[in-house]
């Protein structure tokens, strides 16, 4: 007849035959139990491996899979296996549990078959490229030219972070002023950062070098004497996007040559040749490079116009007078 399900049943003995009425069964009934049939299951780990149950983080729930051999199931019946306990985040000592859909079967607990299996999830490797990076032989720190803003290496070409996952690489340690051997540091940030492992070196040395004054356009080349202090000035052209106002110069005027006596500001400067020398105002963020920081200029005589008031013609009278607009001269 039909297969009896797993349960406790009662068997009843009955006598048959022409002489059965002459007998009686002393133990007419007998209880018996049908136990679930043990079936073996097979656990598989990462990528279907039968011995690797360490998964790599992928931002999704994952865990071992479990299968059964259909030949163990009574013909005409069905039995499927369901696994629970999958996990998403990195961790160890996780447990996956298998259950069967048919109560007439039970998972054989004889190793390697088991109704549960331990597994772990390891961190996913993340790499990136420092930009810029060390160059030359021996390696030289990447250089940035001073521009008045914070700057430093960046983390580019990031590989390994799952699309859409809350994790990114943040770089700190940017600097503003000229200096050597600054350190930029990269670290993982975001809610999922603990699920990743940074494989690229997390620090990068760098330098900031002085912004070069490309040109100094001096003017003027000469002054006309005015009984005052006079000094040319230079128009600055800087490297990159820096503007002239970002760099301040001071000027020192010398008599004759660069080694000549210094002319103090506010001093009356007589006619002659002078040399002005430009200097940076207490600022290591700029450098002159190969530009001309000295400029030779002259102070020339001032032309004075004289207006003569002379009668024309003038007749001899033993005296004469010459007058001009500002002063009057006489001779007797």
If you had to describe this structure to a student in words, what would you say it looks like?
The protein is mostly beta strands and 332 residues long. The protein has no helices and 27 strands. The protein has a five-stranded mixed sheet, with no helix packed on it. Strands 5-10-8-7 form a four-stranded mixed sheet, with no helix packed on it. Strand 7 and strand 8 (91-100) form a beta hairpin. It starts with 6 loop residues before the first strand and ends with a strand.
Describe this structure in a few short sentences.
This protein is mainly beta and 332 residues long. It contains no helices and 27 strands.
SSE topology sketch:
Elements: E1 7-12, E2 29-34, E3 37-39, E4 41-44, E5 54-56, E6 65-68, E7 81-84, E8 91-100, E9 105-107, E10 116-122, E11 124-131, E12 143-145, E13 154-159, E14 168-172, E15 179-189, E16 196-198, E17 203-209, E18 211-219, E19 222-224, E20 233-238, E21 249-255, E22 262-263, E23 272-280, E24 286-287, E25 294-300, E26 320-323, E27 328-331
Low-confidence stretches: 322-332
Mean pLDDT: 89
**Rg (C-alpha, Å):** 50 Å
Q: What is the N-to-C order of secondary-structure elements (H for helix, E for strand)?
A: EEEEEEEEEEEEEEEEEEEEEEEEEEE
| Overall shape | rod-shaped
How far from one another are the termini?
167 Å
The computed structural class is mainly beta
Count of helical regions: 0
Strand order of the largest sheet: 19-25-23-21-22
Biggest pleated sheet: 5 strands, mixed
Number of β-strand runs = 27
